[in-house]
Design goal:
313 residues; alpha+beta; SH3 type barrels; 3 domains; 6-stranded antiparallel β-sheet; 9 helices; 14 strands; protein-macromolecule adaptor activity; identical protein binding; SHD1; ubiquitin binding
Amino acid sequence: MKPATLLVVAVMTLAAASSATAGKVRTWTDASSKYTIDASLVAFNESDVVLERASDKQLGTVPIDKLSEQDKEYLKTKEAVDSAKELTDAMQRWKLSNGMEVVGRLVDFGRKEIVLRRSRGTMYVNDRAYQNLPPIYQKIIPLIVRHAGNKVDDADMLETWLSSRGGRPQTFTVDGVVLELENGDEYGIPFFLFSPQDLEVLQPGWETWLAAHEKQDYAARQHEALRLQTEAAEYQRQRDAQDRRRIAELQLGLTAVEAGVTSMWEVTLYPQPGNPGPPLWVTGFARNSRDASYQAMAKHPGYVVGPVRRISN
């Protein structure tokens, strides 16, 4: 195989992913036909392609104009389009910091102007009647208003607040991501509604995207949007895999309980001095209370064991 040095240099590492939902491994060649890399297609847009390198499962981007004509033609095929859609077009579930869950697909960063007003007894959001918004967005709008320092927690308080303004519209600038819902509508979801863990995945490209947005650099914006789509989709895929593993472990543990091999225990943990965390109630499978306590403490350092009780027969 020809050396992959220059083509790898063109790859910008996005994440140390365990294994993306990528297509089959194929050899990609640069425009000079001198350098190659074995990788699977993950996603692409008008300017960039995201590949998963076969050797180490790293994700990276390559400008399409740096690829060979054969690779460019491949990206036009149904196989390539279907392979890319498998990961980035899947609906995702995002649990917001206030406990709400939204279902959609992250497609871009966004800075949105949201204009709220009340006219003739009806609330409007960007000239669309509030009651006609998707239910999840009806819940998000009051949170945006509250985040700006207003005492608004729900739709009733929002209407009272708008009424007090005497019909004057109020504009809010919202920085966040654009979520495409299952019906095809797109809405901006503010960064402040995501958990700190989710923001570690979603925010890194924001400043670059915003700078490109202000300079009207379309190519740079598309580059960051593709990075966001790919990393968000891979993050969700890995989280779903973890959930499946936890369910499998739970099922295995319950089978062991039924067979009399082990028991299910609830361990109360109290924070040690200097630990600001709350008390915890941890459940797990173990042969006895001592093993259950050790397992709980290993998962939650900085705590001491309180009462322990068996919760299976």
